[in-house]
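Quick check before the chapter quiz. The format below is the same one you will see on the exam, so make sure you can read both the input and the output lines.
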Amino acid sequence: MAFDMDQIIDESLKESLAAKEAFASRERAAIKTLVGWMVEAIRSGKKIMIFGNGGSAADAQHMAAEFVNRFLINRRPLPAIALTTDSSILTSIGNDFSFDDIFLKQIQALGQPGDVALGISTSGNSPNVLKAIEEAKGMGLRTAALTGGSGGKLLTVAELTLNVPSGKTPAIQETHLWVEHLLCQLVDEVLFGQGAA
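Here is the expected output.
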């Protein structure tokens, strides 16, 4: 059978667009709720804590960088931290306790009531994300999750879940990046743009 590169390109684009459109339609209210939580946290002197594994770890770092540095406009730095970046913390917790505790212990050390904890998991079943979200909720943080497929266990653990209704991992992860950028843009708009109060 002949290898058709054009067909693969077209199918990949179609799946990615379909996932984003379905997500935007289904989760529009949840997106706006999460923006409100983030804005409230920032205005109250609190922070956004973001975490996940693998590609989701990269997403957490990317999103935190957009908040701390800038997204589309030059404005003051916003308080966000990725719990995926300190290799000494991650490896000491993983070695001395369990990899399942790498985000949990950072939530315990750094989290405060009114912070927003955002866990990212393509499957919704990452044990270390689940444990951190459960702990954050018990400590009085607002808890949100980005998931995909069925939503996994995070669907019932997080206070707010934004789920990409797709079974295709690349489409889920591409949609996560899209909504992460959108959240940064909307938070900036509310705080510093025409929507600023």
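If your answer matched, good. The two ends are 60 Å apart (CA to CA).
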